């Protein structure tokens, strides 16, 4: 009977010890790296990609009249002409229609930041 009790106790101890874990805070909760690259922002390398990804399905040349209220954001000339309204809409500023319209998602904050930095630099055609 003693052997059975000792064996049972050994099994319980083994189970308890096998469920213990060393939890390292750095491993469990890693700090997220800043993945928003705001260096070397140019229209051709970063800003055009933001508009292409988020705006052209409604504001591209072929659909702007029917879907985008006639506002085209296809290229530099279009974006520059509509920049204040486009930035106000994508950043959901008061007085502007929030974009993308009818979409549950919003434009990524990093992408909005890229457009803002480019806009603040004078929106150069680069």
End-to-end C-alpha gap: 86 Å
The largest sheet is: none
Give the H and E element order.
Answer: HHHHHHHH
Mean pLDDT score, rounded?
A: 84
The outline comes out as elongated
By DSSP, the count of extended strands is: 0
Q: How many DSSP H or I helices?
A: 8
Structure description:
By secondary structure, the protein is an all-alpha fold. The chain has a domain at 43-120. Helix content is 54%, strand content 0%. The longest helix is centred in the first third of the chain and has 18 residues, at 2-19. The model has no long low-confidence stretch (mean pLDDT 84).
Brief rundown of the structure:
Helix content is 54%, strand content 0%.
Write the SSE topology.
Layout: H1 2-19, H2 25-28, H3 43-54, H4 56-59, H5 64-67, H6 76-81, H7 83-90, H8 109-120
Helix pairs in contact: 3-8
What features would you highlight for this structure?
mainly alpha; 126 residues
């Amino acid at each position: 009977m003693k052997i059975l009790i000792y064996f049972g106790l050994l099994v319980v101890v083994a189970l308890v010890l096998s469920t213990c874990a060393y939890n390292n805070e750095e491993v469990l909760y890693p700090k997220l790296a800043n993945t928003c690259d705001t260096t070397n922002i140019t229209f051709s390398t970063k800003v055009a990609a933001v508009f292409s990804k988020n705006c052209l399905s409604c504001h591209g040349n072929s659909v702007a009249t029917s879907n985008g209220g006639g506002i085209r954001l296809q290229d530099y000339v279009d974006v520059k002409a509509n920049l204040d309204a486009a930035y106000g809409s994508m950043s959901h500023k008061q007085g502007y229609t929030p974009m993308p319209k009818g979409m549950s998602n919003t434009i990524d904050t990093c992408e909005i930041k890229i457009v803002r930095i480019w806009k603040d630099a004078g929106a150069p055609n680069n």
